[in-house]
Records
---
Amino acid sequence: MSNAMLIDITRCVGCGECTRACIAANDLPEGDDTQLSCARYTVVNEVGNPQASVRQLCMHCVEPTCVSACLVGAFRKTATGAVVYDEEKCIGCRYCMQACPFSVPKYEWSSLAPRIKKCSFCHSRVSQGKLPACVEACPAGASVFGDRNELIREAHHRINENPGEYVDHVYGEHEAGGTSVLFLSAVPFGLLGFPDNLPTEPIPRLSWKILKEIPKYAVVSSLLLFGIHWITARRAYVEKIEHRDSETEELR
Amino acid sequence: MKQAWKRRYSFWSLTAAVLIVIGLVGVIQRYAFGLGETTNLSDRFPWGLWIGFDILVGVGLAAGGFTIAAAVHIFNIERFRPILKPTILTAFLGYLLVIAGLLVDLGKPWAIWHALIYWNTSSVMFEVAWCVMLYTVVLALEFSPVVLERFNLQAPLRVIRAITIPVVVTGVILSTLHQSSLGSLFIIIPGRMHPLWYSTILPFLFLISSIAAGLAMTIVESQLSAKAFGRKIEVPLLADLARVVVVVLATFLAVRVQDLINRDALRFALEPTYQSGLFWVEIVLGTFVPIALLLIPRFRHTANGLFNASVLVLLGFVANRLNTAITSMEQWPDRTYMPSWQEVAITLGLAAVGFALFSAGVRYLNVFGPQEDPGARQRQEVLSQGSRTTSRRTDTVCAEASSHI
Ligand code: SF4
Ligand code: SF4
Ligand code: SF4
């Protein structure tokens, strides 16, 4: 079963309980950061006009760009849907930060042995059969957790049952090939700062189209290069001999 | 005269020494206080000058290495042989500096070897890492004869010479893959890059532009070292290279513009933005002007003309790489980036190390001297065999002739 989280922006009251629960569950430093950082895996901010309380966290993409980007495979999409990070493998190239279409991975810039930091979908809690800390803490039922297919059905159900209350779009159903965090909203997502120019094709495929040609390229071009060398070397050799021949002819 | 260049030479040595010392201060600070303290990199801007310049430009300028090696060894264009060794040396040093740059930029440089044991073949960065490693080895092999000759180590020399062609072929493949893969790195960022630079053909664009830049680098570096070591500048040879630069640059320009048209992105170049300004700097300075200048024979056949046009090509190339890595990601006012002094100091320091190592190489190794041609002896044998047959033929002809008389 692949899990997902459905966040209904119309139900969110902006209390910030999810942020506080996340800080406690992950032993993050207290403070009043309002943006995602190495100390905040989720934040809630009033954005847009008309205003809405929007939560941000890792989207746990179905085919995550970060997983495909990391050269040492420090990111992994688990069978339960979480995208988790292994700090032991990471070398700190920060390609994942560039690659993530939602700018989620954050870095411990002030550390001398910096790590990438982001929401883990509460992987260890969920493996123990518990809910993610943020979902458990939500007093308004704005964040819920469950099977991805069921939550997508639920989301469309809410849109259909409440005409006019939502824009007809489940954000994350198709974005970047689909994500495991889904959003419902009354305001178009672009106005709330959600990236609205993402392809529906999973982004890793963009680079895979090129990477998969490498073996073919290597074989074809080495044959070509050896072939050219063979011809030109032979030609130079013949030329030299003929040159010598004509020189001796001339000498006569 | 001699005094004058000596004075100039020591001026540059002093400048390099100062840059290296300041760079070292930057390096010490970076390792002592971490990236956050010493750089202007941030969560909004995780890659900066080091990736944009030390890596992207550094690798690009080394492209002369595979181009000239292929010309001489694969295409048998013997004319280019005199510039082969210095170009290989440039490329080899370039790659060593790229690795040094990486060690500064990586958050956990001591874990760099993880790339050897943890494989993720769907990552472009994985391709980049392996190309850096393998091509550095290939460049070391390609340059090794110069060092082995210096110490007259005949046994390893024979081995290296026997495998020259496979090594060069491997080098061409790795290097072209590496140049293009640096462009592929950005393919995964369709959303955040400015349309003037984001393109799915970036790998191809990176490859062509690196060839032009690599050859321009060869022209510049031949002239600099000719001046520094009081040797004659081989203008006709460099003018030939310049012709190739023109063709490659023109191809690059054509593909670049066609791609902008295909993606309907040319209109962004006409908007009065900071990005479009830098786009024009890159295009006009780095392609239009040098192409126009080098098309004028009078210009192309003078040392100064060649030098100035090549420097423009290099500046345009630097602009292109920095624009791709930095300008294209900037969004006023909340996502901008200016390097810190440490970032600049380390970059300049590494470049100075490159110059210092290059002149040390020229000074102590036979980089420019007469080439000991690996194939020479073999060809000599073939030739003497050939002349033996000819002389035999001459003998019979003579005999026949005499019998007629
Ligand atoms: S949102 Fe970013 S970090 Fe999270 S899974 Fe997707 S690509 Fe990875
Ligand atoms: S920073 Fe670490 S996790 Fe991110 S891509 Fe590089 S090695 Fe992988
Ligand atoms: S799932 Fe866990 S780690 Fe992620 S935001 Fe919620 S509490 Fe934080």
---
Amino acid sequence: MASDLRENLEVVPLRHPGRWISGAVILLIIVGLGWAMAEAEIQWEDVPGFFTHPVMLEGLLNTIVLAVAAQGGAIVLGVVIALMRLSANPVARWFAVGYIWLFRGLPVLLQILIWFNLALVFKNISIPMLFTVPTNVVMTAFVAALLGLGLNESAYMAEIVRAGLSSVDSGQTEAAKSIGMTPMTTLRRVVLPQAMRVIIPPTGNNFINMIKGTSMASVIAFLELIHAANNISSRNLEIMETLFAAAAWYLVMVSLASIGQHYLERAYGPR
Amino acid sequence: MALVEAVGVRKSFGHTEVLRGIDLEVDRGEVVCLLGPSGAGKSTFLRCVNHLETIDAGRIWVDGVPVGFRSHGGKLYELREREAAHQRRDVGMVFQRFNLFPHRTALENVMEGPVQVLRRDRAEVRAEAVTLLERVGLAEKAGSYPAQLSGGQQQRVAIARALAMKPKLMLFDEPTSALDPELVGEVLDVMTSLARDGMTMIVVTHEIGFARSVADRVVFLVDGAVVESGTPADVLDNPQQPRTQQFLAKVL
Ligand SMILES: Nc1ncnc2c1ncn2[C@@H]1O[C@H](COP(=O)(O)OP(=O)(O)OP(=O)(O)O)[C@@H](O)[C@H]1O
Ligand SMILES: [Mg+2]
């Protein structure tokens, strides 16, 4: 019996008809969408021109500057708030909790609008005996967007950094102390580099969100990509064409950010 | 004067008193082994000597300096963390779980203290670190990351890292307890040669053989108090206290 079974029996590989069918369906959908796009009343030949239109490029530059500045500021602030959150000082801890509660709790759009309209309630911004400036001079669209986006993001960054710092084994801090490291050196040389592995992936995701989030600054007429697209289309009425050009720029920026994130993760990856 | 003088050291965590008035002197070049059952407070005492824990009462002096304090004008001022860090330079510590910096190579681990804390010249430090790695038998592992080393090798790097600070005193907290049995010997060998070279050492260990052959003195700690202390021959072979006898009966 057993020897029968071992003789040259034909092998029938497992077939996957389901894969062929689902694959065909997906291809069909894609072809359909492509056909619809080709049939749509879009002047495709105009899109490249809008893509490199001077106004669009200015919007692109402003978008990049705003996203990078807001994210950079948020990272610095986030580290500070995270350290306060973990500090032995109860006042600092409670401040950090309240800060995160407030700036994470309100919609970014609302925060941008509040900053932009600050002059309605505070005529001047002043630190007694140091300086006084009129609010509407300082609170440009850029500054309002920077504050709205950056402060909201800093609350998220604080939580990300806190998770990162907490992920590092306490034995690491003890070993650092035992060779005489000060708290600052311990943070810089031992804890933060190890926390990076936990901090970088969500920060990368947040930065990608930040790039897209800058579009909210269009409501206060900051010349970012969407506002630039609107400016162009208000003259020629090619609304979809200019929006597609802006969309292409977002995808370019997000792709570049993803590649950067990949390399950062590798640099701080496990040894 | 003794290098380490501990007088009436008390320490509580919450309501439990873990150290109940410990007196201990360690002379220069002396090797003292701390033995005792789990939870006796051995680790806590070592951590107090290095000011990783603050003590509630009593005083510890290392080389005449009160640990965790600065004496000035007849008063003792509690140190801030920065100043405490400065004091810890003189005391090396080796942990049960090695605690090497995983993002740095063996050589970088050894160089970290002298370069970052003592701000010494890199090239000079590198040469010394290489010598130290040779001394613990790991010259060829200089470029390896901790994850690429065995437990015994990691612990020897950790010893080299502590020695790089040129400490007056070395504290070992069960340095071989986390090791596979066949790796214990290589670490004890390094510690033995260190003792032979005249290093002052306080060693918490369950390795009775090591205590017998290397220690100048063995101290038994039970429930946060010293119950017996003396030469290995006296304490290990002829214990006087019932608690010591019980403990040794189990370990030997
Ligand atoms: N940070 C802490 N918080 C609260 N209790 C602690 C802390 N550290 C130690 N203890 C308690 O203090 C007692 C002594 O602990 P310690 O680690 O010093 O004992 P040990 O003699 O080193 O024991 P072992 O041989 O198991 O390492 C134990 O009961 C422990 O639970
Ligand atoms: Mg212990």
